[in-house]
Amino acid sequence: MANKNAGDNRTRTSVSIFIVAGLCCFFYLLGAWQRSGFGKGDSIALAVTKTAGENCDILPNLNFETRHAGEAGGTDESESEVEELKPCDPQYTDYTPCQDQKRAMTFPRENMNYRERHCPPQEEKLHCLIPAPKGYVTPFPWPKSRDYVPYANAPYKSLTVEKAIQNWVQYEGNVFRFPGGGTQFPQGADKYIDQLASVVPIENGTVRTALDTGCGVASWGAYLWKRNVIAMSFAPRDSHEAQVQFALERGVPAVIGVLGTIKMPYPSKAFDMAHCSRCLIPWGAADGVLMMEVDRVLRPGGYWVLSGPPINWKTNYKAWQRPKEDLQEEQRKIEEAAKLLCWEKISEKGETAIWRKRMDADSCRSAQENSAARICKADDPDNVWYNKMETCITPNNGNGEDESLKPFPERLYAVPPRIANGQVSGVSVEKYQEDNKKWKKHVSAYKKINKLLDTGRYRNIMDMNAGLGGFAAALHSPKFWVMNVMPTIAEKNTLGVIYERGLIGIYHDWCEAFSTYPRTYDLIHASGLFSLYKDKCEFEDILLEMDRILRPEGAVILRDEVDVLIKVKKIIGGMRWNFKLMDHEDGPLVPEKILVAVKQYWTLNSTTSSQ
After folding, report:
1. Do 435 and 366 belong to one domain?
2. Which residues of the chain register pLDDT less than 50?
3. How confident is the model at residue 4, as a pLDDT?
4. How far apart are CA 500 and CA 415, in angstroms?
């Protein structure tokens, strides 16, 4: 009898195991079937553009809802209602929190301090959605956007009058037209760049990254694009209303910024070329401290272009309506600082002078007799966020690594010198290559989710937590550009690596507002950002800032742990976004998920938003 019971038990155990295994297989196949797009999952049709005839479906009918909420400790969304975030007052349509004009005027004007970043304290932050102006429309696709901007998107005509002779911008009907002119190149940026190209190797990929200080409406950067050079342009928010806003509406990389007292938010040895065209920056002042800051971000072998006063002052002092003695002294100070920095003047033609930073600048300085050069003692020349400029020269710490930079586009996937030389702790050549493979896979998945990613629909793209630049590299196309943001609290500072790949980016702390106007990005991507800031600042503040800088009908892709995205999703539920939480491309069992969203179209005085 005992033997019979034992046999029955074994049989029941075998059957139980078989049933459990069968159920596991069934549910796994069911999940895979739903992932494949043939299951009757939730559907979401997200309008991406109001232009008639365009494909408006950003997502197919898929059920990508998370299956890990309980296991990962997600919150029960039924416990509390979603808080609806209201539109801000119309006066905030073009609000730039950290460059607010009223707040700026309370700071000293000396050394442009008042034009630097001055962010509101937590209790003064807005908790509402910035409205688009009435009549706002999706910007023209590139390259038409380079030359035309809809008037309704940035309705400011002052520059059309103030800069009329210089061909900056003209108002024509319901659009602004940008002829490509500038203060120093009224005949157009193309001809001006041709002149520079006779001295600077712009065409062969040697010069890829450029910095335009005091950029105006960024026509220099706009016309460099077709030569495969990407410019980071900046200008202050000042009396030249909306100059940076115009640049971004045109589809040109730009931020609000100024050379004042704080170091620029870029890593050392980042740019192949720096440029100032009548930028009104006092280069010779304060013992050349501003030129020393340019030297910090200029790569050995890089070029500095200065057009306008005081170059060729003997011929032009009357036209500039300035005393020749002042101009002569200004140029003397510039030449003196350039010599101290070991920049070699290689050209001076008309009102344009070009210097080249020597490859062996460190040895050059040590060889200078009676050199007044003071070398900076800071261990990390990339530690710049809110740090004051110093009257000292940043050493190259050169060991030949800069010579190994490949021309672009080969540079995009070549091993960056900072990694090859072991300067990024914890990132080996193998890890760098693995990261590239991972992001190619991720971007391939994104392109299946959003069919418009490759079409040019999105011109201005931001990666809020850029890492090694893998997202931007995998996405690379002449149709768009990516602003790679390096959070100041990131475990590894890899923005220098991103520049060595021929990409551009900036340091930023996402507990504060970004240095841009509202509605300046078409697509925002963030991987691991909310996990990074989980205990640092409010998710709502970060999401409201994303909404501020995202254009109506712009897209968002978030990649993060499921429990974090559950919290993010709850806040988004009160914003005017359509969204969907989706499984990782490797399947429902991976705890990392993807949240995709599209900002609804709504404007001032509209009572409802367009779905």
Report:
1. no
2. 1-6, 9-11, 30-58, 60-79, 399-402, 607-611
3. 44
4. 9
- Residue 411 near residue 429, CB atoms below 8 Å: no
DSSP codes, 348-362: EETTEEEEEE-TTHH
Extended beta strands in 422-549, E state: 460-463, 481-487, 504-508, 521-527
Output DSSP code: residue 270: -
Residue range 279-317, pLDDT digits in tens:
989 999 999 999 999 999 999 999 999 999 999 998 888
For 460-496, b where at least 16 C-beta lie within 10 A, e where not — what string? bbbbbbbbbbbbbbbbbeebbbbbbbbbbebeebbbb
> Do 194 and 274 share a structural domain?
yes
Q: What is the DSSP string of 366-399?
A: HHSTT----B---S-TT--TTPBP-SSBPP---S
Q: Are residues 343 and 443 part of one domain?
A: no
Q: Can you tell me the distance from the alpha carbon of 564 to that of 547, in angstroms, rounded to the nearest whole number?
A: 18
Considering the domain architecture, whether residues 201 and 339 belong to the same structural domain is answered as yes
Per DSSP, the residues of 392-451 read SBPP---SSGGGGPPPTTGGGTSPPHHHHTT-STT--HHHHHHHHHHHHHHHHHHHHH-T
How high is the pLDDT of residue 163?
Answer: 62
CA dist 593 and 355 (Å) reads 49
Burial class (CB in 10 A: 0-12, 13-18, 19+), 422: exposed
Answer for the pair 293, 263: CB distance below 8 angstroms, yes or no: yes
**Spatial separation of the C-alpha atoms in residues 348 and 354, rounded to whole Å:** 6
Domains identified in the chain, total number = 3
* 177 in a structural domain: no
Separation of alpha carbons 600 and 580, rounded Å: 14
Instruction: Using the 3D structure, point to which of 317, 343, 370 is the last residue of a domain.
Output: 370
The verdict on residue 128 lying in a domain is: no
Q: Do both 206 and 335 map to the same domain?
A: yes
Any idea of the CA torsion for 188, 191, 197, 200, to the nearest 10 degrees? -40
> What CATH number is attached to the domain comprising 516?
3.40.50.150
CA distance to 56, 359, 535, per residue, from 151 (Å):
25, 46, 42
What is the Cα–Cα distance from 521 to 546, expressed in whole angstroms? 9
Residues in the chain: 611
Smallest CA-to-CA distance from 164 within 183, 148, 137 is with 183
Identify whether residues 501 and 589 lie together within a single domain.
Answer: yes
Looking at residue 316, its pLDDT comes to 84
What does the alpha-carbon distance between residue 541 and residue 496 come to, in Å, rounded to a whole number?
28
Amino acid at 107: F
**Residue 474 domain flag:** yes
Contacts of 444 (CB under 8 A, 6+ apart): 474, 585
Computed from CA positions of residues 270, 276, 280, 282, in that sequence, does the dihedral angle turn out positive or negative?
Answer: positive
105 and 224 assigned to the same domain: no
Burial of 426: CB neighbours in 10 Å, binned 0-12, 13-18, 19+: exposed
Q: Does one domain contain both 219 and 329?
A: yes
Alpha-carbon gap, residue 102 to 162, rounded angstroms = 23
Whether 489 is covered by a domain: the verdict is yes
Among the candidates 75, 104, 120, a domain finishes at: 120
| Residue 380, C-beta contacts closer than 8 angstroms, at least 6 positions apart | 493
Give the domain range for residue 469.
410-599
User: Left, alpha or beta for 137 (phi > 0: left; psi -120 to 50: alpha)?
Assistant: beta
Q: Give me the pLDDT at residue 403, please.
A: 52
